[in-house]
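Journal club side-thread
Mid-discussion, someone asked how the predicted structure for our own chain would compare to the paper's figures. Pasting it here so we can look after the session.
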Amino acid sequence: MESTTPEPSTAKPSGTPRPRAMVLVTGAGRSGTSSMAGTLNRLGLHVPEPVVGANKNNPRGHYEPQWVVDFHKKYLKEAGVGTMDGDPTAVALAEKVFDRADVRGQIRDWLGRLPADGADVVIKDPRTFWGAQTWTALAREAGYDVRYLTMLRHPAEVVGSRSTHYSKATTDEQHRREDVAHIAGWINANVINEATTRGAKRAFVLYEDLLADWRRTLAPVSGALGLDLDRQLVAGTHHEVDDFIEPSLRRVVATWEGSDVPENLRALADDAWTALVARAHGEIDDDELGTRLDVVRDAYAQLYDDSEIIASNRLTRQKSAARRAARRDALAEATAKAASAGATGSTGRTTSSVARQTEAIRASDLVKEVVRRGTSRVTGKRPS
């Protein structure tokens, strides 16, 4: 895709020499990660090219290295993990894949191809937190001083933004299912992001704060992450960031009012949000944030497990129905092929032989069909 990355600022960092910084911008999707990465790029950090181009959902650009996005999509799909996956056990599935030697080797090779000019680097992809520990280890191995910058946005706004830009729901029930799933994903993404970045240099920034006053918001971030940005944050002089950041970028403003999200789920989201805001504003330290989010994480995992138990009978029926439907479809397809082949005289197989063949359908294929059809039941969408 065509790069939308502008030329970095010519401002030079001050102070004594230090290792190259690699700032990994994370956070739940639609939380302002693109705005932050674009801002850091204009402040002199390098975004590895090629980058994901702008589109109607992000007209000012994503500032995501295309390789990183493709890499995460491929291996999260292999792990069976979604970008905003609400399953508390999903992080273990993702980490198992990212810890493989072949996967680590690809990250190591890509890092080795980055320009060795001493420039600080910003890598933004909302999926990064799923493999944060792998990225941290390999970036340090490559000589980078790793820092994490997490963007925060109220969960109701994230849900509203995702619904505005990505929703395919056509009924009120489908919209409600999406909203509930997105809130669950927001909680899970934020508690996992916090847990997997502990021990690293990190900062947390509210999207609304960045848009309201980017200089004031980034001043403490520059100090916490050691980015030497102070000279560019002086008020009263025009900076190219002023032309990039403006309050109108916050196109969706939402609260819980009118929301049909279950109260217990909303309460957990509120607890996580309150703790993250307090950390972003310097009211609590990393230790207290970790303690508070561990409570949320445990409570959410328990709620998730309880919900699965409550819905177990329905899930069992869906799986059984999907297995039967998969076998019927496979038998019908094989029978049709056999009949067509028989009409041309190329085979003498009978329906019974086809039936025996379909009985040998691999269990893995049936599982995939179960998931496909089961998902359609949950989302209300027809299977593709």
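Post-session note: Residues 318-379 form one domain.
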